[in-house]
Amino acid sequence: MLANWKPQRNPFTLGVASGNPRPNGVVLWTRLAPDPLAPGGGMPAESVAVEWDLAEDAQFSKGLRSGRSFAIAGEGHSVHVELVDLPPDSHWYYRFRAGDAISAVGRTRTAPAADGSVDRLRLALASCAHYEHGLFVAYRELGEADLDLIVHVGDYIYENAWGVDPVRRFGAPEPMTLEDYRQRHALYKLDPNLQLAHANHPWLFTWDDHEVDNDYAGALGQDRDPEGAFLLRRAAAYQAYYEHLPLSRAQVMQGPWMRLHDRFVWGQLADLHLLDCRQYRSVQPCRPPGQGGSSNLAGCEARLDPNASMLGAAQEAWFYNSLSNSQQRWNLIAQSTLFAPKDGDPGEAEVIWTDGWDGYAANRARMIESMRGKANPVLLGGDVHAHYVANVNADDGSTIASEFCGTSITSQAWPQEKIASELPANPHLLLGDGSRRGYVAFDLRPGQLQADLRVFENVRDRNARGSSLAKFAVNDGKPGPLRS
Ligand SMILES: [Fe+2]
Known about the structure:
Blueprint (H helix, E strand, L loop, with lengths): L15 E7 L2 E7 L16 E8 L9 E7 L6 E5 L8 E8 L2 E2 L3 E4 L11 E6 L10 H8 L4 E4 L25 H12 L2 H9 L1 E4 L21 H18 L17 E5 L3 E5 L21 E3 L14 H13 L4 E5 L16 E3 L7 H11 L5 E5 L5 E7 L5 E7 L10 H7 L6 E5 L3 E9 L2 E9 L9 E10 L2 E6 L1
Parallel strand pairs: 1-11, 9-10, 10-11, 13-15, 15-17, 17-19
Antiparallel strand pairs: 1-2, 2-5, 3-4, 3-6, 6-7, 6-8, 9-21, 12-13, 14-16, 18-19, 18-20, 21-22, 22-23, 23-24
The structure holds fe (ii) ion.
Fe (ii) ion binds next to loops.
């Protein structure tokens, strides 16, 4: 441990972030990396001491609190400061110091008290940021927006290069080791728009597949490497994920596992249930022999198997408990992918994608029944690189919940002709549009949830500005989004 380490160069190249806001605190993050893309980030082999400041103003003159934390060598010299003694519903500025170096200033807040009367929550839903597919102009808009919270539902990084006409390059092969994943996360964090979005708002997270490997399922990778080998890779990816995000100590890895699913309360207004759709799932049904990953196919009876699970039995039970215990007016259920069914065949056949909830239909049906009669369940998702707005219906046809699945920050989508051609066979899908990249901005009040589907004409243009594709509302007590 170096108690008085003096950096020769700025070690705060990856910015600052905050996350997991609770009524009594929030997690502050940075990672020391004077040479961010080099092995070890250009840091000495030892852990080093880091100071942090928290204040009510950006000049750090009002209500200043300071403390000492550590950039731990075994955690990539990341710093996670978990504050637990702040007042609810309070706003803060923060920064880090190491020697003479001072980080950028971040802005964050705590959640309102669980029994507090809250009249508003402004929240943004983001997913799927392929670095090579576009510039992070949507993250810039998020950084500049007036928000309480950003919820990221997965594909925060991508491990693989795919798609057409890259606007920039990873400059490295697909990551396999901890050092590889650290470098990939560092590359992302060097993006100034992503840094801005992190610095200005607290975030909540769940992941999808690309934080590790395309279409992985539990302990099995896409390429069917032996289970043990994939678990090692998954552990490396999870570790790097922890090191680069403002996650809590409770999320430190336990062997190859990381507990990510969680519940966050926003006063009497909302409960946010975050689900992990990757770590515990059973293998996608109807995999052709010798093939990994997912497929689009018809006639897959195994997708109805009640033992097939997207969440795993323990998390599923946890969710039902979490939902039953909720006292809040709205239940926002953030998970990785499109929740409502989607038949990809315009004609008689029913073609489904086995990686999504359609591959785990019994698990989904149980989830829907658990939401019946609960206070305003709203599903939030991503993964499919298109805006979808849906009625979530039970088998008896009644609408139980509302769904907003956001388009990608940058990742490329299916042609809009294909997406549009699928809609008539899926009347519960009120909108499906993958023509543009963006995110969803929500304004939640006790009586109504408003959703603004944001889009950018061209994410290859660094000056692109967002606009509204469509607006929907959900009224208290009446499941089902209405176009507004
Ligand atoms: Fe994605």
